[in-house]
Amino acid sequence: MSTPLLEVTGLQTAYGSSQVLFGIDLTIAAGEVATLLGRNGMGKTTTLRSITGLTRARAGSIRFRGTAIESLAADRIARMGVALVPEGRQIFPNLSVRENLVAFAANRNGTQAPWTLDRVFEFFPRLAERASNMGNQLSGGEQQMLAIGRALMTNPHLLILDEATEGLAPLVREEIWRCLSALKGSGQTILVIDKYVERLIQIADHHTIIERGRVAWHGSSAALDADHDLWHRYLGV
Alpha helices, DSSP H only, in the chain? Predict the structure, then answer.
């Protein structure tokens, strides 16, 4: 078997004396789309922060492309090809759309067909229309497109989205789902947090439900779709 792109084993993470994660396991192969599901406060974002080096793991291992990264700084992990679209987008408000994108340009996966400014503008035509607008002049949906485009400009091996469609209007959410489906079709590996299970089932290969810092369930989209009791028990829908 080939080495997983990401392999998280026994991950434990705490904020000071408050432990949040109690042994999370997660494996993602290259080209897969995976999700982290669960109610608010269950440890999903902390898992992402541990993977990306923003919060240091207390115990367990995180291997990316076969290399242990649990002790590495966030900038080093990013340069290895992990790109995070954070909750709240966190774009630069005083930079233009074009500047936000160009500032992050890199070919971290060494592809012969990298994401470029023109390619991002083709993927998100609304960003092309607003290329000269400042970040704080964009709508919430446009900011999310910019945050995704910014991450793609690094040409990551792994694209991570925290609350991919939080606070977006229905039509804009559909645009983001279209984006993620297209990225999956191109072979991009994705890890995503979002609450719209019905749409995630259509896109993702497998799902991990987290409950109070532990893995409560893991399985395929078909298995999750067939067991709506899981939704009510762990997701509150």
Answer: 44-51, 74-79, 97-102, 117-123, 125-129, 140-152, 170-185, 197-203, 221-226, 228-230
